[in-house]
């Protein structure tokens, strides 16, 4: 039986939408879920409401607005991103404390960000510091890279991974293993842990979940085997990697090269054993090229 009864999903993008769907698919557990968003008129949110979500429009600059929306909420599940991870998520944490929220789950779902100082992700570490200062219990979920970050041509092509053309420009030799977990797989896992573990097992805990572990070279070899095509691989030299970084305006693209080159996106997988039945079928590279 779940230690918590009422959950607030904050931000209705990729992750927030999947969380809302998962709550709707598990109505028999008798849990309540609400979605906090800047605009509740989005058609997708109206659909979530028709499936059982309560909706709350919020103004992240107003503590009153956030505290009102979080009344009676046990767990905040933040699914914010980018600008939403800065002052927005900090305001949310302050409001959660004031509203009596029992557990705060900040928006993570990537590399281990404990103590991270990289500009792209420092806001995640700032949230951890605030949660500790507020003495608000939290749970962190690190899951590695999303396969869509390289499978979607719009993302893949800017980093040099292009399965359409079969051309691959790697950061270094591409042999460093990285962790891969798709949101469709970590969302059910996070839900499972939040609704089955005791609060003492969740409070201030760090979970590392991994759907697959593969280097770029291993992924490309699998792609060749599955498609029968021959990859055109270029290993960027140190000079080329630095030139790529220097040319980028987006902090994300300045962050990625060294992470991929040196395995920074590798998380542990010790939390996988907490749900042995988990089947991360959206994260297994063997199946992604089927
Ligand atoms: N490891 C990886 O490969 C990887 C890849 C992608 C994302 N991630 C991580 O996963 C987490 C969730 O990302 P996502 O891709 O699901 O996010 P997303 O689709 O971009 O959605 C984030 C939502 O947050 C709200 N939001 C965004 N900017 C905001 C702002 N400035 N102020 C207030 N609200 C704002 C919006 O919701 P409303 O419009 O409903 O208010 C938006 O839909 C993030 O921590 C991200 O870093 C990891």
From TrEMBL:
<keyword id="KW-0521">NADP</keyword>
<feature type="domain" description="NmrA-like">
    <location>
        <begin position="9"/>
        <end position="279"/>
    </location>
</feature>
<dbReference type="Pfam" id="PF05368">
    <property type="entry name" value="NmrA"/>
</dbReference>
<dbReference type="GO" id="GO:0016491">
    <property type="term" value="F:oxidoreductase activity"/>
</dbReference>
<dbReference type="InterPro" id="IPR036291">
    <property type="entry name" value="NAD(P)-bd_dom_sf"/>
</dbReference>
<protein>
    <recommendedName>
        <fullName>NmrA-like domain-containing protein</fullName>
    </recommendedName>
</protein>
<dbReference type="InterPro" id="IPR008030">
    <property type="entry name" value="NmrA-like"/>
</dbReference>
<dbReference type="InterPro" id="IPR051609">
    <property type="entry name" value="NmrA/Isoflavone_reductase-like"/>
</dbReference>
<keyword id="KW-0560">Oxidoreductase</keyword>
